[in-house]
Amino acid sequence: MTSSGLTKLQKIEKYKKALVRSYIILMTIVLFIFAGIFTFFIVDKTMSWYLYGGLFFLLYSYFIIGKRYSVNILVHSYMIIASFYNFYIMLAFWHNSVASFVWLMPIPLAAYVFFSRKYVILYSLFVLLNIAAGYLISVNFDFDFKEHTREDVKLTDTFLVISNVAVIALLIYYKDKIRREEIYHQIENVPNTEIRTGNVAEKDPPFADELFEKIESAMQDQQFYKDVTFNISKLSAALGVNNSYISKAIRHHGYPNFNSYLNRYRVNCVKKLLVENDLEKVTLMSIYTEAGFSNQSTFNRVFKQLEKITPSDMIRQLNNDYSS
């Protein structure tokens, strides 16, 4: 493993630790507010002590126990324990609100951030089993839970939804950072070439498809190619991805270089504009400049190279099609 690859792994681990730390801070605030609600506004001593107990366990496990274990073990533990911890709350509000299920929704997303697809499926099934178990227990057993008014439920549901939106936003924010470092790590640890029967052939980098999808999405949504001065450095800045990584992804999909990829977009744009516009009212210059070409000589050369026909010949063909 290269030193740069080690740095990427360290950054991934750093982001995961930062995510866990941010989650602990957020959930500490959330549990404290919920405990306060059930202490002072919706007086329910059992629920308030249950929430204070959860708050104590969360902080104790993180600061005392958590330092002895890896981030992944800590996350696995939190997701499993949090599901069982939520079970009492889910049963207490089963007949008043389904919002307590919301606490379980970020679990598959958290699995997606930290683990492989296998764990995403397993934790999704785990969440569904929790809900199914809650339903079976609620319909077959009677519990002496405190009754809550509609106003009580409206207050707790509102704060519950806001809290979970914050949790999901936190997961998505760090997922983007972690995934970017994972892509960089894959790139830097895949050799550019391999030897096959004496010939040098470029390997298929595993990151290329995902990165190319991001490039395609940016080009189509933002229409960067229409900018005459657009280049690979600007795309790199827009995506937050190194130039060399972009070049590798583009070459992997059959383009010799970035300029050939960019020119394909511009030529396709010209063809589209030629079909959509009345060529008696719109000049060819206005069309190729709108597509991102800086001058006619470059436009003519690139167009003929890619389409095997000159722009003038294509215009004549279009005119003949319209007249026929």
Characteristic terms for this protein:
single chain; 324 residues; mainly alpha; Arc Repressor Mutant, subunit A; two-stranded antiparallel ribbon; 13 helices; 73% helix; disordered N terminus
The separation of the N and C termini measures: 65 Å
Q: Report the sheet with the most strands, covering strand number, pairing sense and barrel closure.
A: 2 strands, antiparallel
Mean pLDDT: 84
Estimated structural class: mainly alpha
Count of helical regions: 13
Task: Specify the overall morphology.
Answer: elongated
Cα-atom radius of gyration: 29 Å
The number of distinct β-strands equals 2
Question: Helical percent range?
Answer: over 70%
**What's the number of structural domains?**
2
Strand order of the largest sheet: 1-2
* Spans of at least 5 consecutive residues with low confidence: 1-6, 190-204
- List SSEs in N-to-C order: HHHHHHEEHHHHHHH
Q: What assembly state would you assign to the polypeptide chains in this entry?
A: single chain
Strand content: under 5%
Report on the architecture of this protein.
The chain folds into two domains: 3-187; 208-323, Arc Repressor Mutant, subunit A. The protein has 13 helices and two strands. The protein has helices at 3-41, 45-65, 71-92, 106-114, 117-140, 150-188, 208-222, 232-239, 243-252, 258-276, 284-290, 296-307, 311-323, and strands at 193-196, 199-202. Strands 1-2 form a two-stranded antiparallel sheet. A hairpin with a 2-residue loop joins strand 1 (193-196) and strand 2. The longest helix has 39 residues, at 3-41. The protein starts with a helix and ends with a helix. The model is unreliable at 1-6 and 190-204 (pLDDT under 50).
